[in-house]
Amino acid sequence: MKFRPCIDLHEGKVKQIVGGTLSDSGARENYVSCRDAAWYSALYREKELTGGHVIMLGPGNREQALSALREYPNGMQVGGGINPENAAEFLEAGASHVIVTSYVFRDGLIARDNLEAMVRAVGKEHLVLDLSCRKREDEYWIVTDRWQRFTGTRLDKETLIDLGHTCDELLVHAADVEGRQQGIEAGVAALLAEYSPVPAAYAGGIRSMADIALIKELGKSRIDFTVGSALDIFGGPLSFDEVSARFGRD
């Protein structure tokens, strides 16, 4: 189990926002940084943290994302509006993988032709599927379009096994708790540990070392984790240096 750092970009700035609040009119913000994306990327490179995520939340973030990737070649993944037409630009800038969600869903269902197009464009070895989810009627459902739209696809054993075989890694934000620092969505971490056939990373709700320990327990030390708002580099109480030192490598 290792720590995956993040750089979330909104309106051209590094921010931490509350999951599910992003819309055309803005978002509820936990933190807005005075530093640019390349600064964070350089920090992660210095700490030798690999597999982190640069996520573009809406338009106006391309240049910041590209600068972060160039700062740490092959050290970061990138997601947000990725499709077969623009993926090459980000890989050439230094992304190790591209992260895709909405493009592989159509009318709430898995669009197999789009998924196959992404695999052809970048290769399975460079593809991460983001299966971020929200809970409805005691089940987890994959959500798209800034975590606002429920798909008709459950996050369950069948989906994880099915989609896991089409990509190199899975990334899952538990959107109901993302950015809230109120504890993790334990059921999501347990699902990933039990059924993901490829490396997987969990994100959402982490507020303390106790939450990280719970992910390790539920995840059977198999799944990685991402912390954002709780870190002191984003205005939170949790020491980035301590998390990096303890969980920077498997």
Describe this structure in words.
With 250 residues, this protein is α/β, with parallel strands linked by helices. The protein has eight helices and 16 strands. It has helices at 37-46, 62-71, 87-93, 112-122, 157-164, 186-195, 209-218, 240-247; strands spanning 3-4, 6-10, 13-17, 29-32, 52-56, 76-79, 97-100, 105-106, 109-110, 127-130, 133-136, 139-144, 149-154, 169-173, 200-203, 224-226. The strands form three sheets. The chain has an eleven-stranded mixed sheet with strand order 1-16-15-14-10-7-6-5-2-3-4. Strand 12 (139-144) and strand 13 (149-154) form a beta hairpin. Helix 1 packs parallel to helix 2 (62-71) and helix 5 packs across helix 6. The chain starts with a strand and ends with a helix. The mean pLDDT is 92.
Main sheet attributes: strand count, strand direction, barrel closure: 11 strands, mixed
Q: What strand line-up does the widest sheet have?
A: 1-16-15-14-10-7-6-5-2-3-4
| N-C termini distance | 5 Å
What's the count of strands?
16
Order of helices and strands: EEEEHEHEHEEEHEEEEHEHEHEH
Number of helices: 8
Strand content: 25-35%
Quaternary structure: single chain
Overall pLDDT metric: 92
Spans with pLDDT under 50 lasting ≥5 residues?
none
Global morphology: globular
